[in-house]
Design goal:
Blueprint: E1 2-5, E2 11-14, H1 20-41, H2 46-67
Antiparallel strand pairs: 1-2
Helix pairs in contact: 1-2
Length: 76
């Protein structure tokens, strides 16, 4: 894993070209599937399990859009 300075000036970890946004996109369906599995294998209903997975997935979408939004590189 290499560590470098990203275009906003903060330190960003890069693992073989995988960006923070790639990880976010991978985590969203993973959380939804985890909620589905919890609903299917526990005493929770399937709808509650999916909702349980959807809450952190929605939080990740909000984080990716509003907290660490992708920015266009400046033409320096």
């Amino acid at each position: 894993m290499s560590v470098g300075i990203d275009r906003t000036g903060s330190i960003a970890a890069s693992t073989n070209g995988i960006s923070r946004y790639d990880l976010l996109l991978a985590l969203i369906p993973t959380l939804l599937l985890a909620g589905l599995l919890v609903g299917a294998t526990s005493s929770l209903s399937l709808a509650h399990g999916v909702a349980l997975g959807a809450l952190p997935a929605a939080a990740l979408v909000g984080y990716g859009m509003f907290v660490e939004a992708p920015v266009e590189p400046t033409g320096r």
